Amino acid sequence: MSEPNKKTPQSDETTILHLNKFTSEQPVSPLEESATIFIKKAAQETVQEAAARVVVPSAAGSLSAEEMLGAVAYCYAKGVFSSGDIERKMLQDAEFREALGGVVPDPKAIQRFRRLNRAAIQEVLERFYRRLRKQKPPTEVLPGARPPEPSPLKPGPASDATQGAPNPGESTSFFVKRKANDQLDKATFIDGMSQDN
Length: 197
Description:
The chain contains 7 helices and no strands. The protein has helices at 35-49, 65-77, 83-92, 94-99, 107-116, 118-135, 172-196.
């Protein structure tokens, strides 16, 4: 008889990530629209344009600054925040793991990368959320009509679609900064909680 509160090994594996695209040598086509490809391109641009150099800890293995920045930002955008979960996702992606010779960054290296490069990760996430905001037209409110009431958020973890959703009157600039900062704060908090246990 199984215990009711015990997690099955598959219960944590609901988010499918495509991390192998970050180590692929194929150039990024401007016509490709997937989140993975867009974040890869945003990471490349951020590394090229950043005022401060993106630092990859030596414990991160053979990942370049662009690859590590893209993979971490992509995980956050997909709702994978714990450094341990990011390591697990990297290990599960056979193509990604093979491109790195079987050595993926451990949770401590991922945490260190996040601390050293918070501004760069935030820039990649801001580019991503700005793109999403441009794709979704704001809800139109007819003159004299009341805007729709925001739905109350449920306690506990929520999906990216409900947590931190843009307010119709909120500027894009404010929204993308707030959303990216929230993602980084959540990752820091979750890693802090896992260290306390």
